[in-house]
């Protein structure tokens, strides 16, 4: 057993999880006769080996940072917002729609307007789950999942039946947006070898700072964390659980919606019909889990997963290995993060505390993620 | 041939080490056939650990156990069961949604193939219940029966498993004085039938009444075994605590002042929507401690939650400092002058994953000096914490230590520090000393009396009758959501309180 | 269309869409009654669907008409194997049940597609030739009115699922195993003191849910989708989970709830054949099952009580 300080242990857990995740991917590739070394090296080479690759990686990371913050805020408040894909999709479609509808509005108005509308759309979708949770105690895990599908099909319908044909190329793709509503920055694109990198990354960095400030410095953040850590004590201390539930879900959805906005106004410059829930939602969830919902963690994890995702495309072309291995590796990493207890067993922390606590036989464990990871919740009304 | 021995159990040199903390440190214990042996010690002295070892729930770090003269290795509860050892836990080990019968037979079911044979089981359990005078409705759901009945379920459970060595962990903590008397009768009946009994307790009078011998444990070590008849209460108390304890508190004369809290015809529903407080009225004045006695579950939780704004008041009113505070928000009520020491400190009183400093700021974080314009001032929070740590003598390495790393006594001190620092006119103390050792209890009692002297009104809710009797100026007894009587501590007895707690007398009856 | 044929159409398509939900929800009932929340049912269904399709495509010529049935068993076994991940993570390694379940959901679709690509060199499979199809129960189908509606051209897996529901209800409430399983979801600490092996019981709960979820996914694939792709299972696992709650954690309750959700799902498919409903824009029919799931949860969630220790990890201290 290796002795480390608790701080180092916190860093070791994700690092070991990442290594283990890559190993799982390697084993699966070996079983199916692919060469994992070739796979991983082509992956890193195409993601980081040239300016275009680096640009694309940064571009990929921007929406993930937003969706990860979205997941992190909800999870600080004790909710498992699994509806990030739907919230992001709502942000994407609405922001594109606004820009398409008013292509000639000055950039200084149009761009912020589109961003705000997209943010609100994401917030509203998450807000439904927050409201139902606050008012009726409905489990947000299932409502947000169901909302993903509702948004998915509603967007299909809006696209095909409601949107003016003038704004579309065909029933499944919109026209490209005007530069007045775009996040594209020409010098940045040129600098990174013509990649789709855009102003989204700057917005994402601002979002990280806002997230840090909100959680560390404001009473709002303090209340959100309190409600998440112990809803009973928070209520006892005069915090309104209903207000905080709805507020945190609105915030969470806002950030997820922003992720969709950046994807639309930045990456694609248009909207096209989706058939499954958005990847950036699921990947954002993974980013937040790997990054432990900390600011630095989210940033680093977003970059790592972007390398995987952008490099995965290169890997598929160069080494001929199915792209899905990337998602398998990501899922495996999250699996190891989830069982961090075992990784923790490998390392003993040097404890400073001298107060002894009787070991509890019954863990104050999760109850479907409803009320935070460490709270034993009451019997009524939970899954 | 085994040597014939009177000792049915011998535990020798038992050590239990939890990561460097010795919960049991070289304890010896012998239990003789047919006797009732009391295991006396403070909260946290290591009594429960020792008994969990004996019942196979924990493995000792060192030491030997002999049952009926034979050395045994009790590595799990099944081994204990096969040796005839059964334990009735302090927190009942029951499945609330299961029936009484299902609870009793679980793990020891009579079956036809894989199918439960409930009829046969019911017959066996009924016979057993009759023999030991433990009458119960076997088909009732455990969630629907009283605590005293649940205890009978627990006893039947161990008897059904054929136990002849019975361990009871703090069995009377939840019972009324009358139920305690009945329980001790059952206990003696069991001993007479040849069962050997270990009774874990920290109540001296019970030992006097029930036990033959007593073993005293302090800080993980045994400090002696005595015949109950040959040792005085004072001596036992001293051995248990390790120093001379003054068991009587001196209560200074305080003149009651103006009315602080007035509760009028209060009706409150519980979680299931059933009326739990049914028309309760009382008032508390400055410089007065009102004790609220009663059995757990007679509306205490709902009453406290209604006064503090945590629960909706169906009808009636709560007047605090002459202002109507019925159904106001929690924070507004706190600011109107209410401090609240909650019954469950880990669930309601603290956020265990947060540092001590944040926990001490839980009631005041949102206003200056701890925050300004919704921005938190971490330096102010830290200074606030340092001040309270010093003032209330909270033992911690630093203000940044997590609340979960504090001992139970210091967790309670932290809550008391935070609440008393609000300088509220009304202090609601709900089970303020639950699970604490004598030193911490003394400290908290002194703090409450000091607040009384400072002219605060105090509502003390406790299931410990001794605590109520010692501290209160007046006692209201709660039964089924109503006041079944109001008495003065110097004019009443535990027996009378016990009767009131079961609703035997109603208000207005003369006390003799 | 007369009433009987309309009803027959509704009932048979309801049955077709309910069968996977019933089977999967039954798994959820067992897992949650043992104390493990299993949000990974969706992923388990995906693995069941994947493996049964691969089996079906490979062995259709060997087993003929029996292929989908054997394929369903293969799906069940694959689901069971996959659920081992969740069991190990939550029972031995104290993982948060929701996160662990989410990992199954994240893992299954790419794993399935990866393997499809590795085996067939393309992103989705061919359609199977041996599917469950429709089935007429001899004898019962001849009963007037009821026969044509319920027993003629109906779904054999659905009737099997209903029979399994009754069997699993009986096991859960009438046998020693059921009593012990429920005790671990109610109060694992107490169960442990009664000498019940909590970990073993919880493993049983999760593995049963893995088998049933795999079965459900396989039935969905072999009766409805007919092939496997990344979008074969879209939310059915979560609907099954909702059915567990709506059905109050009781096998028969979950069965009725699944039939209800199956009805909602089938409406979006057969809606255009029904006189009144065909006028409603298709989007409403498409989102109806999901909206109804949410509405049902809102209305019934507070009123049903989960096993007390559902989702609470149990750590034995020694």
TrEMBL record, chain A:
Name of this chain's protein: ABC transporter permease
Domain of life the protein comes from: Bacteria
Keywords for the protein's UniProt record, in alphabetical order: Cell membrane, Membrane, Transmembrane, Transmembrane helix
Keyword Ligase on entry: no
Gene Ontology cellular component terms for the protein in this record: plasma membrane
Intracellular or extracellular location(s): Cell membrane
Molecular-function GO terms, alphabetical: transmembrane transporter activity
Residue ranges of the region described as Disordered: 356-383
Taxonomic lineage of the native organism: Bacteria, Bacillati, Bacillota, Bacilli, Lactobacillales
Membrane topology: Multi-pass membrane protein
Listed InterPro entries: ABC_transp_permease
Residue stretches spanning the membrane: 12-34, 108-129, 141-159, 197-215, 245-265, 285-308, 320-347
Basic and acidic residues: compositionally biased ranges: 356-365
TrEMBL record, chain B:
A Pfam short name: ABC_tran
Gene3D superfamilies per the UniProt record, alphabetical: P-loop containing nucleotide triphosphate hydrolases
SMART domains, A to Z: AAA
Membrane topology of this protein: Peripheral membrane protein
GO terms for MF: ATP binding; ATP hydrolysis activity
Any one Gene Ontology cellular component term annotated for this protein: plasma membrane
InterPro entries reported for this sequence: AAA+_ATPase, ABC_carbohydrate_import_ATPase, ABC_transporter-like_ATP-bd, ABC_transporter-like_CS, P-loop_NTPase
Subcellular location: Cell membrane
Superkingdom of the organism of origin: Bacteria
Main location: membrane
Keywords associated with the record: ATP-binding, Cell membrane, Membrane, Nucleotide-binding, Repeat, Translocase, Transport
Domain ABC transporter: 9-244, 261-505
Family label: Belongs to the ABC transporter superfamily.
Protein's recorded name: ABC transporter ATP-binding component
Automatic annotation (TrEMBL), chain C:
Record field: transmembrane: 34-57, 69-91, 97-120, 132-150, 156-173, 203-221, 227-246, 253-271, 283-301
MF (Gene Ontology): transmembrane transporter activity
Keyword Transmembrane helix: yes
Signal peptide limits: none
Sorted UniProt keywords: Cell membrane, Membrane, Transmembrane, Transmembrane helix
Membrane topology: Multi-pass membrane protein
GO cellular component: plasma membrane
One Pfam family of this chain: BPD_transp_2
Primary localization class, coarse: membrane
Compartments in which it is found: Cell membrane
InterPro entries found in the cross-reference section: ABC_transp_permease
CDD domains named among the record's database cross-references: TM_PBP1_transp_TpRbsC_like (cd06580)
Keyword Transmembrane helix annotated: yes
Record PANTHER family: GUANOSINE ABC TRANSPORTER PERMEASE PROTEIN NUPQ (PTHR43370:SF1), SUGAR ABC TRANSPORTER INTEGRAL MEMBRANE PROTEIN-RELATED (PTHR43370)
Name by which UniProt lists this protein: ABC transporter permease component
Species whose genome carries this gene: Lactobacillus acetotolerans
């Amino acid at each position: 057993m290796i002795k480390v300080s608790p701080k180092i242990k916190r860093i070791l857990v994700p690092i070991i999880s990442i290594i283990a995740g890559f190993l799982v991917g390697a084993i699966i590739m070996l079983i199916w006769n692919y060469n994992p070394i070739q796979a991983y090296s082509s992956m890193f080479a195409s993601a980081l080996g040239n300016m275009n690759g680096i640009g694309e990686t940064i571009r990929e990371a921007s929406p993930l940072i937003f969706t990860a913050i979205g997941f992190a805020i909800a999870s600080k408040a004790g909710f498992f917002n699994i509806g990030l894909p739907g919230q992001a999709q709502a942000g994407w479609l609405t922001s594109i729609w606004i820009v398409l509808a008013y292509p000639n509005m000055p950039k200084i108005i149009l761009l912020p307007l589109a961003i705000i509308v997209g943010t609100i759309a994401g917030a509203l979708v998450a807000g439904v789950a927050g409201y139902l949770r606050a008012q009726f105690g409905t489990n947000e895990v299932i409502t947000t999942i169901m909302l993903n599908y509702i948004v998915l099909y509603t967007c299909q319908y809006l696209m095909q039946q409601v949107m003016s044909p003038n704004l579309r190329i065909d029933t499944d793709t919109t026209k490209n947006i005007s530069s007045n509503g775009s996040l594209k920055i020409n010098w940045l694109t040129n600098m990174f070898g013509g990649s789709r990198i855009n102003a989204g990354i700057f917005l994402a960095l601002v979002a990280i700072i806002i997230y840090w400030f909100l959680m560390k410095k404001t009473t709002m953040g303090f209340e959100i964390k309190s409600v998440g850590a112990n809803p009973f004590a928070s209520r006892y201390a005069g915090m309104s659980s209903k207000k905080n539930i709805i507020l945190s879900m609105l915030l969470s959805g806002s950030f997820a919606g922003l992720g969709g906005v950046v994807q639309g106004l930045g990456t694609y410059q248009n909207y096209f019909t989706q058939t499954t829930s958005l990847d950036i939602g699921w990947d954002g969830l993974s980013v937040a889990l790997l990054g432990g919902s900390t600011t630095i963690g989210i940033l680093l994890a977003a970059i790592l997963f972007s390398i995987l995702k952008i490099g995965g495309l290169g890997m598929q072309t160069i080494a001929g290995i199915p792209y899905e291995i990337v998602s398998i590796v990501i899922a495996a990493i999250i699996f190891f993060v989830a069982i961090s207890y075992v990784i923790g067993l490998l390392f003993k922390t040097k404890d400073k505390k001298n107060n002894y606590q009787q070991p509890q036989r019954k863990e104050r464990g999760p109850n479907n993620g409803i009320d935070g990871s460490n709270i034993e919740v009451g019997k009524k009304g939970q899954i | 041939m085994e040597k014939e021995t009177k000792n049915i159990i011998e535990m020798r040199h038992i050590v239990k080490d939890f990561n460097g903390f010795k919960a049991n440190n070289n304890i010896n214990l012998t239990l003789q056939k047919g006797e009732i042996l009391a295991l006396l010690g403070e909260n946290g002295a290591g009594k429960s650990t020792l008994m969990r070892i004996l019942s196979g729930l924990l493995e000792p770090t060192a030491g030997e156990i002999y049952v009926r003269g034979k050395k045994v290795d009790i590595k799990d509860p099944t081994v204990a069961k096969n040796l005839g050892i059964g334990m009735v836990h302090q927190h009942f080990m029951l499945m609330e949604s299961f029936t009484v019968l299902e609870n009793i037979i679980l793990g020891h079911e009579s079956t036809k193939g894989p199918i439960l044979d409930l009829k046969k089981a019911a017959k066996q359990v009924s016979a057993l219940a009759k023999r030991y005078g433990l009458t119960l409705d076997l088909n009732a759901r455990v969630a629907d029966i009283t605590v005293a009945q649940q205890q009978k379920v627990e006893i039947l459970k161990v008897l059904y498993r054929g136990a002849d060595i019975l361990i009871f962990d703090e069995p009377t903590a939840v019972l009324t004085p009358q139920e305690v008397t009945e329980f001790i009768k059952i206990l003696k009946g069991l001993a007479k039938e040849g069962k050997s009994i270990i009774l874990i307790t920290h109540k001296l009078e019970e030992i006097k009444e029930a036990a033959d011998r007593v073993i005293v444990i302090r800080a993980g070590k045994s400090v002696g075994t005595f015949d109950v008849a040959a040792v005085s209460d004072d001596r036992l108390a001293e051995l248990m605590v390790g120093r001379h304890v003054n068991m009587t508190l001196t209560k200074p004369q305080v003149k009651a002042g103006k009315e602080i809290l007035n509760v009028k015809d209060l009706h409150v529903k519980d979680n299931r929507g059933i009326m739990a407080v049914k028309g309760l009225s009382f008032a508390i004045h400055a410089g007065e401690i009102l004790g609220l006695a009663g059995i757990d579950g007679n509306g205490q939780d709902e009453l406290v939650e209604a006064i503090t704004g945590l629960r909706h008041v169906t009808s009636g009113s709560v007047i605090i400092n002459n202002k109507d505070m019925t159904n106001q928000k929690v924070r507004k009520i706190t600011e109107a002058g209410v401090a609240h020491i909650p019954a469950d400190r880990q669930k309601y009183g603290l956020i265990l994953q947060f540092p001590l400093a944040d926990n001490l700021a839980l009631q005041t974080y949102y206003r200056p000096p701890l925050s300004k314009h919704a921005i938190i001032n971490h330096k102010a929070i830290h200074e606030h914490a340092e001040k309270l740590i010093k003032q209330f003598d909270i033992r911690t390495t630093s203000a940044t230590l997590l609340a979960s790393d504090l001992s139970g006594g210091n967790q309670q001190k932290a809550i008391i520090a935070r609440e008393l620092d609000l300088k509220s006119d009304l202090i609601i103390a709900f089970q303020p000393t639950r699970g604490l050792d004598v030193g911490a209890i003394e400290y908290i009692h002194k703090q409450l009396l000091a607040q009384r002297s400072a002219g605060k009104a105090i509502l003390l809710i406790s299931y410990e009758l001794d605590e109520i009797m010692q501290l209160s100026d007046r006692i209201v007894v709660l039964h089924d959501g109503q006041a079944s009587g109001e008495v003065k501590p110097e004019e009443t007895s535990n027996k009378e309180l016990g009767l009131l707690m079961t609703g035997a007398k109603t208000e207005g009856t003369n006390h003799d | 269309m007369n009433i009987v044929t309309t009803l027959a159409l509704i009932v048979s398509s309801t049955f077709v869409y309910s069968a996977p939900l019933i089977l999967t929800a039954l798994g959820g009932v067992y897992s949650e009654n043992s104390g493990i929340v299993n949000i990974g049912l969706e992923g388990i269904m995906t693995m069941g669907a994947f493996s049964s399709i691969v089996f079906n495509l490979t062995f259709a010529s060997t087993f003929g008409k029996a292929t989908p049935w054997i394929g369903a068993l293969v799906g069940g076994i694959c689901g069971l194997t996959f659920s081992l991940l969740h069991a190990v993570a939550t029972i031995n390694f104290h993982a948060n049940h929701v996160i662990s379940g989410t990992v199954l959901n994240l893992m299954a679709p790419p794993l399935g597609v990866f393997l499809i690509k590795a085996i067939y060199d393309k992103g989705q499979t061919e359609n199977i030739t041996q599917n469950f199809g429709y089935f007429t129960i001899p004898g019962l189908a001849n009963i007037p009115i009821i026969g044509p509606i319920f027993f003629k051209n109906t779904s054999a897996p659905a009737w099997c699922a209903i029979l399994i529901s009754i069997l699993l209800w009986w096991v859960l409430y009438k046998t020693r195993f059921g009593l012990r399983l429920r005790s671990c979801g109610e109060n694992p600490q107490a169960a442990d003191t009664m000498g019940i092996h909590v970990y073993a019981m919880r493993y049983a709960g999760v593995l049963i849910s893995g088998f049933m979820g795999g079965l459900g996914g396989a039935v969905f694939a072999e009766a409805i989708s007919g092939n496997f792709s990344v979008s074969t299972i879209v939310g059915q696992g979560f609907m099954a989970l909702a059915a567990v709650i709506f059905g109050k954690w009781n096998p028969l309750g979950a069965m009725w709830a699944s039939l209800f959700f199956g009805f909602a799902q089938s409406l979006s498919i057969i809606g255009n054949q029904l006189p009144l409903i065909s006028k409603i824009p298709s989007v409403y029919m498409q989102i109806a099952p999901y909206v109804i799931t949410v509405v049902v949860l809102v209305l019934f969630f507070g009123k049903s009580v989960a096993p007390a220790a559902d989702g609470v990890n149990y750590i034995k201290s020694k």
